[in-house]
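Job type: complex structure
Entries:
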Amino acid sequence: MLRFYRSTVGKKILMAVSGIIGIAFLILHMLGNLQIFQGPAKLNGYAAILHGPLAEVVLAQRVVLLVAVVVHVVMAWQLTMRARAARPVGYVERRSQAATLASRTMRIGGVLLLVFIPFHILHFTTGDIRPAGTFTPGNVYGNAVASFRIPWVAAFYVAAMIALGLHLYHGAWSSVRTLGIAGPRPHPLHRPAALVLALALWLGFTAVPVAIALGWVR
Amino acid sequence: MKVTLRVWRQRGPGAPGRLERYEADDVSPEMSFLEMLDVVNEKLIAAGDLPIAFDHDCREGICGSCSLMIDGVAHGPMQGTATCQLHMRSFADGAEIVVEPWRARAFPVIRDLVVDRSALDRIIQAGGYVSVDTGGAPDGNAIPIAKAAVERAMDAAQCIGCGACVAACPNGSASLFTAAKISHLGLLPQGQPERYRRALRMVAQMDAESFGGCSWFGECQEACPKEISIDTITRMNADFIRGGTVARADGSR
């Protein structure tokens, strides 16, 4: 077990597993968010279920997710330091041949998300950050509409979701490979599947602030 | 044709290095990149200067001795080609070409463009072999092997150990090299008894040599003169996972 943890492959496997836990959560999160298009009763009702009968489930999910995020960040940090140490003298000239934008922005994008996530929790979960000046616990619909009417809040969320979409595109593709389950030959649908997943989550999350900012949801 | 070279010169392992400018005037487009360097070196020797040190041996693309980061690309601009098989016709007349050694902590510079790649040998020593009793040569086709397995094993076996994958990787990872060796042996029946132990030991040695981890940038397979696929890395990880779990039970660790 220690040997597993110490190896770069073991650390990548931990990153892949914790990342996939994150993706699973994001799919549920997005499906929850999209209920905003069905009106305040539907969305606030869903929130009431989560914090009422399902409170224990939500608590367990939060614990799992927190552990996954901590593992993901610690492994990313360690692997980044290792990668830096592996090339103490850099090239005067180096041209990227194949790496996608998504793969090259994994680290910086991850840091951006690490800034975004605490802001997001303080904003919509605890209500400590109140760009609109008000926060009503349980009125998820009202809180979202009040906040995303403010252009900079909507813009910040839209920007963060671009970082998320890129991160997910490379993560959804590479995590399966890291776990050794993409087969000895690439599945022809593997790369497009990651793209569809990343696009779906990106669009699903971006739709809410954009719709409110443009006044489609009020 | 005429080219201007900016070549990394470094007297020894600890010495400081820098890019030096050289004009190569009488370059034939049919010269290989190494032949062009030979011509530059002849001039340097005639002038009493030290020639540019670079690794080379077979000059037919099969030995893995040559290296060189050319204009920021391992083995230069031609895909699936080692530096010795790269010809000057791939460059424009009057081009300025930057030539640097492979860069990795595990590949210390010995002199100029020559680096010590023995870290790769130690990864092989850790498990890149098949232990068999000696004896007469086995009969051809005595061991039936599926065509698909043969093809994939031979694709991986093409690795010549040049280290371009390490040089091209933003993380300085030797994953493609290690994975190619693990796949080459692990796909064949002869490699099965040591398959999972091999993956664990070679990965451990790869890490011990202070190479970085794999982030799936895919730069290595573009740089590889033998065009080895990153699918081998998927296979390495699968064998590593099995080695750490199932294979333990049969004492094969």
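Summary: The two ends of chain B are 58 Å apart (CA to CA). The first helix of chain B runs from residue 33 to 46.
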